[in-house]
Amino acid sequence: MDTTAVHTINANGIRLACRTWGPVDAPPVLLLHCRGADGADWTAIAERLAAPPRPHRVYAPDLRGHGHSDWPGDYRAEAMSDDIHALLATLGHDSTDVVGHSLGGIVAYLLAQRHPGVVRRLVLEDVCAPVPLDPPRPPAERPAGELPFDWAMVRGTDSQRNAPDPVWWDHMDRITMPTLVIGGGPTSLIPQDQVAQLAALIPGAALVTLDAGHLVHESRPAEFLGLVREFLDR
Question: Does some domain include residue 1?
Answer without folding.
Answer: no
